[in-house]
From TrEMBL:
<dbReference type="Pfam" id="PF01590">
    <property type="entry name" value="GAF"/>
</dbReference>
<dbReference type="InterPro" id="IPR029016">
    <property type="entry name" value="GAF-like_dom_sf"/>
</dbReference>
<dbReference type="InterPro" id="IPR003018">
    <property type="entry name" value="GAF"/>
</dbReference>
<feature type="domain" description="Phytochrome chromophore attachment site">
    <location>
        <begin position="33"/>
        <end position="172"/>
    </location>
</feature>
<dbReference type="InterPro" id="IPR016132">
    <property type="entry name" value="Phyto_chromo_attachment"/>
</dbReference>
<protein>
    <submittedName>
        <fullName>GAF domain-containing protein</fullName>
    </submittedName>
</protein>
Amino acid sequence: MQTYSNAEFENIPNHPLEQGLQQLLERLISKMQRDELIRNTINQVRESLEVDRVVLYYFYEEWYGQVTFESLISQELSIFGSTGAENCFNYEYAALYLAGRTKAIADIELEPIETCHRDFLRSIQVRANLVVPVLVPRGLWGLLIAHQCHKPRLWLETDIKMMQIAAQTLSTDSNVLES
């Protein structure tokens, strides 16, 4: 096995180790830029809407995902890592969001939703929510979700538009598209 000094190593063109390290560095930078965009977006949305919580629910495989980012009015409301209600989100719901569905629920206690969905929302202290899909060319990447936790909320058209613009911002970012 041949060994190289630092000076010799620097002069080896396209050394596989160097290429691998460069690719790793590029992936890390891309991930950091993506994460920063997501954090800034959900923080701005939460502050603008004046809601208790905004989360990004990321799908890591078909219809299975988890909360990977959150912006909170209080740390007590954290649901970071939550995977949602088991067997409640299925292909039927996914198809609606794949088609661009936006769902605004003013009061979970009055909305005609599945029992498992209502129970799950209660368990994470949600009283009203607004859900917008983050769609990329290959499909449903995630859901951008605003939660009002302590009281019902009538979602305005401007609230919905803001969430849609935020989701569109995420869905068109090159770092999100590559993830």
